From TrEMBL:
One of its GO terms (biological process) is xylulose metabolic process. It comes from Absidia repens. Keywords: ATP-binding, Carbohydrate metabolism, Kinase, Nucleotide-binding, Transferase, Xylose metabolism. Pfam families: FGGY_C, FGGY_N. One of its GO terms (molecular function) is ATP binding. The keyword tRNA-binding does not apply. Residues 288-487 form the Carbohydrate kinase FGGY C-terminal domain. One of its GO terms (cellular component) is cytosol. This is Xylulose kinase. Belongs to the FGGY kinase family. Its EC number is 2.7.1.17. Residues 3-278 form the Carbohydrate kinase FGGY N-terminal domain. Highly specific D-xylulose kinase which participates in the catabolism of xylose. Xylose is a major component of hemicelluloses such as xylan. Most fungi utilize D-xylose via three enzymatic reactions, xylose reductase (XR), xylitol dehydrogenase (XDH), and xylulokinase, to form xylulose 5-phosphate, which enters pentose phosphate pathway. The keyword Signal does not apply.
Length: 546
């Protein structure tokens, strides 16, 4: 039997999924950064410096790789793994000081031991960072504004996008920037580790840099220069990779240390959202809502016009298509925070409070616990009958449980209403040549919080469509990686769709989880206008205080 490995280096953990020839998952595991690697002092995988600078240590990711591979080496599959691909949290950048170290890896020692000095920047900026507003405005101004940057690259400038992160390091950390030999994204960093030499960024993940032409998938010289000066092209070295094909065989280090197959091929790695798109194999009218550390909304698009509030990214397996995406920072960590302050850290209590609070049009809340991406705002804004409150809700009998429940309900409804308002706008833009816009038919839910059926029912009610989940594999980004690994061995002779169809089984069809209560949907539809109006007021209030 041949096996295919998918890795996913997400915000909070490094996960793996191993599939066989017929796409059955045979092994899954994860190294959790907080639980398994506490010495790096991260909180939920990240280090917060002051208000808006958020990083993770690349050496922690290297050590997670050491741990995961030692666990994998204890399985009977290791020597029959034919190919590896995978995913990384998007936008984060790794700064290599000494690539030579990768060529000289000694199989008797860990990677952590040997790559201690490999990085010129010990803390990599990650997607949660929002400290590059100045660089964003400069980048937009250099091409004539946010709309033009979105037209060129698929997105206006966002604080977390890699080009703006690189620009800040170029401007503020000159010495470390000059010491940098090469720059990787989190995804291509994983592929680089396994290859023992620099791996290209794949075009789908490079769409999250603000530096790649969204149509041709080539770097745009002017944007490279604006972000990282004349040396950046040299530090990236390679153009974005738009094919899924073998880059080279795995470095001999892994063969000698772990007994991996010397013929095991390393494929390009992609962004975690693109990899989720692969695992879900989206059909027209499907939309993925991923409730991971971030909340994201994904759609496959054949044609599209970039907007200034959503992202247009290259499709991971179809050069001529796109992925439309919305991304929210206040996803699971904000829900988790509410669980901790209102529900003693218990999801069941959280759900009881949520269900005890009825739907209402009286109370509305916007909970930007962390600096939000869309809209760009921070803080908590509560409204009672359209009026901004100074403090908490005053709920008739003022019982604590009721106030907690109203806040939890307002937070969840507000998260999902924001997705609906913006998804509808994104789909409206997906008909650039006058064709009818795609209609939303179903939502495929994934990510850690998709384990919570109460949340999924509200999601279904807000959108008025049924929710489905994949039956195979608990983590879609690493499953997508495993499928990409296999596809890379076949892509010369078959399409991705044909490869998937060949092994379709009853349990490879997504499973129906819940259906909408259409009375609730009408209620939410009637709130959309007021929701947008109050959101504008909240954003205005935020801008007054900044
Ligand atoms: N029952 C639950 N209800 C709501 N959220 C949950 C539940 N179980 C797990 N989660 C959330 O899932 C999150 C992790 O999701 P995951 O997709 O694994 O994240 P990532 O891929 O970014 O590391 C946790 O932060 C946690 O808050
Ligand atoms: O910034 C984005 C997408 O643009 C995030 O979705 C990151 O890719 C983090 O992913 P998770 O750890 O939440 O899966």
């Amino acid at each position: 039997m041949k096996y295919y490995l998918g890795l996913d280096l997400s915000t909070q953990q490094l996960k793996c999924t191993l599939i066989n020839e017929t796409h059955t998952v045979v092994f899954e595991d994860a190294v959790n950064f907080g639980r398994d690697l506490p010495k790096y002092n991260t909180e939920n995988g990240a280090v917060l410096h002051g208000n808006d600078i958020v990083t993770s240590p690349p050496l922690m990711w290297v050590e997670a790789m050491d741990m995961l591979l030692s666990r994998l080496a204890k399985t009977p599959y290791i020597s029959d793994i034919m190919a590896i691909s995978g995913a990384g949290q998007q936008h984060g950048t790794v700064y290599w000081k000494d690539m030579q170290l990768l060529q000289e890896l000694d199989p008797t020692r860990t990677l952590t031991d040997q790559l201690n000095n490999a990085f010129s920047i010990a803390q990599s900026p990650i997607w949660q960072d929002s400290s590059t507003t100045k660089q964003c405005r400069d980048l937009e101004a250099s091409v004539g504004g946010p709309e033009e940057l979105a037209r060129l690259t698929g997105s206006k400038a966002y604080e977390r996008f890699s080009g703006n992160q690189i620009a800040k390091i170029y401007q503020d950390k000159k010495q470390q920037y000059n010491d940098t030999e090469c720059i990787s994204l989190v995804s291509s960093f994983m592929a680089t580790l396994l290859l023992g030499k620099l791996a290209p960024m794949d075009a789908a993940d490079a769409s999250g840099t603000n530096m790649m032409d969204i149509r041709t998938h080539q770097w745009i010289d002017h944007l490279l220069e604006q972000c990282g000066g004349p040396d950046l092209r040299h530090k990236l070295r390679l153009e974005p990779e738009e094919e899924v094909h073998p880059l080279a065989a795995i470095n001999r280090y892994y063969v000698e240390r772990y007994g991996m197959n010397s013929g095991c091929q390393i494929m390009p790695f992609t962004g975690d959202n693109s990899s989720t798109q692969v695992a879900m194999n989206l059909q027209l009218g499907d939309c993925v809502v991923s409730l991971g550390t971030s909340d994201t909304v994904l759609m496959s698009l054949k044609e599209a016009e970039p907007t200034t509030e959503s992202h247009l990214m290259a499709h991971p397996t179809d050069k001529s298509a796109y992925m439309g995406m919305l991304c929210y920072k206040n996803g699971s960590l904000t829900r988790q925070h509410f669980r901790d302050i209102y529900a003693d850290g218990n999801w069941d209590v959280f759900n009881d409070l949520l269900n005890a609070a009825p739907m209402t049009s009286r109370y509305m809340g916007f909970y930007y616990w962390m600096q939000e991406i869309i809209p760009f705002a921070k803080g908590i804004y509560r409204f009672d009958q359209g009026r901004l409150l100074d403090g908490d809700f005053i709920v008739c009998d003022n019982a604590n449980a009721k106030v907690a429940g109203v806040n939890i309900r307002c937070m969840i409804e507000s998260q999902f209403l924001s997705m609906r308002v913006r998804l509808e706008r994104m789909m409206g833009g997906a008909n650039s040549s006058g064709n009818q816009s795609p209609t939303l038919k179903r939502i495929l839910a994934t990510g850690g919080a998709s384990a919570n059926l109460c949340l999924l029912q509200i999601l279904s009610n807000v959108f008025g469509v049924s929710i489905y989940k994949n039956q195979e594999g608990s983590n879609s980004a690493s499953l997508g990686g495993a499928l990409l690994a296999k596809y890379g061995t076949l892509s010369k002779t078959t399409t991705f769709d044909d490869m998937v169809k060949q092994h379709q089984r009853s349990n490879s069809e997504p499973e129906l989880i819940c259906q909408p209560d259409l009375t609730a949907t009408s209620h939410y539809t009637s709130l959309l206008g007021e929701y947008s109006r109050l959101e504008d007021l909240a954003v205005h209030q935020f801008s007054l205080s900044h």
